[in-house]
Design brief:
Chain lengths: 382, 596
């Protein structure tokens, strides 16, 4: 409870950086397990992907649920059972996956529908997949275009590092969700695929909300400010964590309800198929925005000479005893007097950063003459 | 404010229309069933599995072109089973049937001989309206008009076709076969390339009926002989009796006997040009009539030229025999769809030009169905006329019930959560979602009735989830507000800047969803396409509801003292003093790592 109170009170002081390394390890474990399961066992694909066997026979008053009941013990829980009505009467059409034993199924079907085995057998046929390779290929192509366009868009609106981070995070989420299905051998249906796509969309959305906050806060990372890029990201995460939690909770509530009430209490098996995927995906999506997408951008951005210089200066300042005095003084003058600030601040930084400092200082000049120092103003606002 | 009023009006009008017109969402195959069509190849021909598979894919593409109904298409042995949701009316079923099962093979053959209507054809088919033909032709006919011979019955010009032929053609060829004029004028748009050869424009087709044909067709036993054919009557009759029916692949290289939609018979030469030469086909409106514009591929241009050159000169010898059918000295080209002539056209043009031709006129639906078929190509397999069966839902009402109950409970929980967390603002969020959902309902109902958009169980749950996610736009905004208020700014002072930065976030994030939805929609089939549609729709509605509802309402609240001075009502505690921006030095929360 204490944690939540802290979380919701805008304290801005959760140190996410500590979690990053752990998260990388945890994700790596999950990813490896998932990929391993995918490569060894593969996904348990349903009838829509693999096809199966179908029968059609006169109903003779048999109900669909009666047929479903006899097929269940034979492994036909995912059987498609329909009544077909024509001018001549009503037939029952049954479609089961490849795992159901044909002879046993025929015996059971003829018994329940009061037909001779021959009648049932005569209308047996092999059914191809409704979700064939063509559909899969199209979907895969579409996904590739999707990633390219999304990456280009994020690059355009935000930064290329964020495009990289977002795409990696999304792939991470989908791989883990699919991995869960591979590890636990849960059957994959078209509905599950749609759920995976939902995860993809949700994860991207969540990541971009975090990134946009980072873009917003980027102005805090100045050569003589108090934020390294990492600090700024940590601050951004603190500022978006409540939103992330609230959104995830409000997305999870209906999903939980679908799983618990719809699938488990009311027994709609189909709801379970993708409810589970959504549940996993929403968790992973929220997690990856904070612990995968953000640190990837941090890793890439901290390599930039400017951010590196800032970090080195601030680290030196925080580490040493003598350094803080010098740097602190430099900062103080830097805020008031930009010209001197650049000279003073240049002491611990590299040559590359020096130019950066000077340009910033020059840009600050018109404001710093008569107005309060700019950095502090910003700090107050946030 | 204007936006808010407009949005609310939009919502109310949408709901009003939906309820007054009785629009209801079309439930998918899994929830309410539909029709099942079993397509069996014609007997006598064997096909490989890959050919059947190819046919399946063409059918899938055609059905997909109809809308996002999420059909179920499987290959079952040597048959293809197509299940479509809804389609309660017989007319709908027929249309779907015609579109799915039609081989859709388009061929171009020269007309060797024109025969009259089949002896049994009723006289009523030729309801010539002299006055009308006169008016259409008048004036427009240039001097270079082709000797376009419209065979007897076609004297019914486009203006009269809709009513006359619709009632007289009962060949049971489905929507594509029926309701079309016997011989619609084809006009070749040569893009002005062959300047000397003016093509016969649609309306300029002179109704110069061939001399020997009986215009009234009343006697109905007369077999009209074309003037310049060299066959003797006896040989003719023999040839007619012997001639195989068109529409079967193995007779591609022989003369065949074909009829058009009104029962006029033609002897046609071998296939001179395949429908595969068509590079694109679109339905469009020209002079108030629906027509199909067909473009010929560059590689097939030679074949097209050969055919039209032969016919233009009325060739009686050579590879393509296309004897002159009129005094103008040029022959006719028949456009055959499967086993029916959908068009015959006179040619004087030396070539086809580059931009293809138009086939007209049609009703809107016929034109779009034909274009759809031409675009996705012919089926590699000839199917028997299929039978339609009504099928029950694959999941049944219990699943629907469970999904709805679970969804309602879930949404109620979300509403409760938002209310507890954001108080008054939570109420705004709920109302904002409600307006968005109302529009969603309207759109789904409208499209269900008019475009065959089906709502499946996964669609329903997808919508429920998307509503949960749509709360996010509100959350992003409110978090900005709460944060600023908690730091000591007033509601009124911060509302504008908070909305601006929240809106920036919302737009970027929603654009990503929209882009993704668009790509998935255009490149995929089946349930993925359905998903993309709902994702795109709910994203647009999210943007609209945020801008037109959330923004004005919260801004209005900020102006009212009641709300502005009671920050606890907004779920925010009064400020607790300022804190310095020193995140680096701040103590890490012990539970911070646990959040992972």
């Amino acid at each position: 409870m204490n944690f939540f109170r802290k979380l919701y009170s805008f304290n801005d002081d959760i140190n996410f950086r500590r979690g990053w390394r752990v998260a990388y390890a945890v994700s790596a474990v999950f990813l490896l397990a998932g990929v391993f399961a995918l490569l060894t066992g593969g996904l348990k694909l349903g009838i829509d992907f693999k096809g199966g066997t179908s029968w059609q026979f006169p109903a003779n008053g048999t109900s669909v649920s009666a047929v479903r009941d006899v097929l269940k013990p034979l492994g036909g829980t995912d059987a498609t059972i329909q009544t077909l009505t024509t001018d001549k009467g009503t037939d029952i059409r049954v479609e089961v996956g490849t795992k159901v034993d044909t002879a046993k199924a025929e015996a059971a079907l003829s018994k329940v529908s009061h037909n001779s085995v021959d009648v049932v057998q005569s209308n047996r046929s092999q059914v191809g997949p409704s979700w064939g390779h063509d559909v899969s290929n199209k979907a895969i192509h579409a996904l590739i275009y999707f990633f390219i366009v999304i990456a280009a868009y994020i690059w355009w609106r935000l930064e290329w590092q964020m495009a990289v981070g977002a795409i990696i995070a999304v792939i991470h989420d989908v791989l883990i969700s699919v991995g869960v299905y591979a590890i636990f051998r849960i059957e994959v249906t078209p509905a599950t695929v749609v759920a995976f796509l939902t995860i993809l969309g949700y994860s991207l959305y969540d990541t971009i909300v975090v990134y946009d906050k980072m873009r917003d806060n980027q102005s805090k990372v100045t050569p003589n400010g108090n934020y390294t890029y990492t600090d700024m990201v940590n601050l951004s995460l603190n500022q978006t964590i409540v939103r992330s939690l609230n959104t995830t909770i409000s997305a999870l509530l209906p999903v939980m309800s679908i799983l618990v009430i719809g699938a488990w209490i009311m027994g709609a098996v189909t709801l379970e198929e993708f409810g589970l995927a959504l549940l996993v995906g929403l968790f992973v999506g929220a997690y990856s925005s904070i612990f995968i997408a953000a640190p990837i951008v941090v890793g890439l951005k901290e390599r930039e000479p400017r951010n590196k210089a800032i970090r080195e200066r601030l680290e030196a300042k925080r580490a040493g005893l003598a350094a803080p005095v010098v740097a602190g003084a430099a900062d103080a003058t830097g805020e008031g007097e930009p010209g001197e600030g650049s000279a003073g601040g240049a002491q611990p930084v590299s040559a590359g950063a020096r130019t950066a400092t000077t340009t910033t200082a020059r840009a600050d000049t018109p404001y710093s003459a008569n107005h309060p120092p700019r950095p502090r103003k910003k700090g107050k606002k946030r | 404010m204007k936006g808010l009023v407009a949005w609310l009006l939009f919502v109310v009008i949408g709901l009003g229309l939906t309820f007054s017109r009785g629009w209801k969402p079309l439930l998918g195959l899994d929830l309410q069933g539909g029709v099942s069509v079993t397509l069996q190849p014609r007997t006598g021909q064997t096909y490989t599995d890959s050919e059947i598979e190819g046919a399946k894919q063409v059918i899938a593409a055609r059905v997909n072109g109809l809308g996002v109904g999420e059909p179920d298409i499987v290959r079952s042995g040597k048959t293809v089973v197509v299940q479509l949701p809804g389609l309660k009316t017989v007319a709908d079923q027929k249309r779907a049937l015609a579109l799915i099962g039609q081989t859709g093979r388009l061929t171009f053959r020269p007309v060797v001989q024109q025969l009259g209507p089949t002896p049994t054809t009723k006289a009523g088919t030729t309801t010539t309206v002299p006055g009308k033909t006169g008016t259409t032709v008048a004036g427009k006919t240039g001097t270079t008009v082709a000797g376009t011979t419209t065979p007897p019955t076609s004297a019914a010009t486009p203006t009269t076709t809709a009513s006359t032929t619709g009632s007289t053609t009962k060949q049971g060829l489905g929507p594509l076969g029926g309701g079309r004029p016997a011989v619609a004028p084809v006009s070749f748009s040569g893009a002005g390339a062959a300047s000397a050869t003016t093509v016969a424009p649609t309306t300029a087709t002179p109704t110069t009926t061939p001399p020997a044909t009986t215009v009234a067709g009343a006697t109905s036993t007369t077999v009209a002989s074309a003037p310049s054919t060299t066959l003797s009557p006896a040989a003719q009759a023999k040839a007619i009796a012997k001639a195989p029916k068109c529409g079967v692949r193995k007779y591609d290289n022989t003369q065949v006997l074909c009829t058009d939609a009104t029962g006029n018979r033609y002897v046609l030469g071998p296939v001179a040009l395949e429908g595969t030469a068509v590079s694109s086909a679109d339905a469009s409106v020209q002079n108030g009539q629906w027509q199909v514009n067909v473009t010929i591929k560059g590689s097939k241009q030679g074949d097209a030229d050969n055919l039209y050159n032969a016919c233009a000169s009325g060739a009686t010898t050579g590879p393509i025999i296309c004897p002159a059918q009129s005094s103008g000295g040029s022959g006719l080209v028949a456009v055959v769809l499967d086993s029916t002539i959908i068009n015959t056209a006179g040619v004087q043009a030396r070539d086809l030009g580059t931009s293809g031709f138009r086939i007209s006129p049609f009703t809107h639906r016929e034109a779009s169905d034909l274009a759809l078929n031409l675009r996705y190509g012919a089926l590699p397999v000839d199917f028997k006329p299929a039978n339609v069966e009504r099928v029950s839902a694959t999941l049944g009402t219990s699943s629907l019930h469970a999904g709805l109950v679970a969804g309602m409970v879930g949404l109620a929980l979300v509403a409760l959560y938002v209310l507890i967390f954001y108080r008054i603002l939570g109420l705004v969020a709920i109302l904002s979602l409600a307006t968005g959902s109302a529009v969603l309902w309207t759109v789904i109902s409208y499209l269900g009735v008019h475009s065959g958009l089906a709502l499946t169980l996964s669609g329903i749950t997808g919508i429920i989830v998307s509503i949960g996610v749509a709360v996010d736009s509100n959350v992003v905004f409110y978090e900005h507000l709460r944060e600023d208020i908690a730091k000591g700014r007033t509601f009124r002072a911060t509302v504008n800047s908070s909305f601006d930065s929240a809106w920036h976030t919302i737009v970027i994030a929603d654009m990503v969803s929209l882009l993704g939805a668009a790509i998935l929609y255009f490149f995929t089939l089946g349930s993925v396409r359905g998903f993309a549609f709902y994702l795109g729709l709910s994203t647009i509605l999210d943007l609209a509801a945020s801008w037109f509802f959330m923004r004005p309402v919260v801004m209005w609240m900020a102006r009212k003292d009641v709300f502005a001075h009671h920050s606890p009502w907004l779920g925010v505690r009064p400020p607790r003093g300022e804190r310095g921006p020193l995140p680096a030095e701040s103590a890490p929360a012990p539970a911070g790592a646990e959040a992972s």
